[in-house]
Amino acid sequence: MNDKPHLDVEALAELQDVMEDEFDVLIQTYLADSRSRIDGLREALATADPEHFAKTAHSFKGSCINIGAPRLGGLCFEAEQLGKDATLEQAPAVLERIEAEFSEVARRLQNFGQEA
């Protein structure tokens, strides 16, 4: 999993070029949406609902890939598989890794483009 970067800088730069002034709105929307999805994963775990866990992880995975966060997307794929297999025993550890990676991605996205 660690072979994937936190952010795909080239994909983000292309997104920034395409989105222009709306890029910051896109980033803030992604961050807010991601926090909601993490809450959804927590809720699905608390209620032992593997189907909801899988669906939430799947949609989170898609938004991570679209924004250029491949490592986080990979972790979401892992979570999705646990939900699909209805084996949530390892899900708390995966969710912890998702939360940690999201914190790193959020920090890097907030600083993206400001380093230049």
Automatic annotation (TrEMBL):
Annotated InterPro entries: HPT_dom_sf (IPR036641), Sig_transdc_His_kin_Hpt_dom (IPR008207)
Keyword annotations: Phosphoprotein, Two-component regulatory system
One Pfam family matching this protein: Hpt
Modified residues (Phosphohistidine): 58
Keyword Coiled coil: no
GO biological process: phosphorelay signal transduction system
Keyword Cell inner membrane: no
Signal peptide location: none
Residues annotated as domain HPt: 19-112
GO MF assignments: protein kinase activity
The protein's name: HPt (Histidine-containing phosphotransfer) domain-containing protein
Organism: Marinobacter nauticus (Marinobacter hydrocarbonoclasticus)
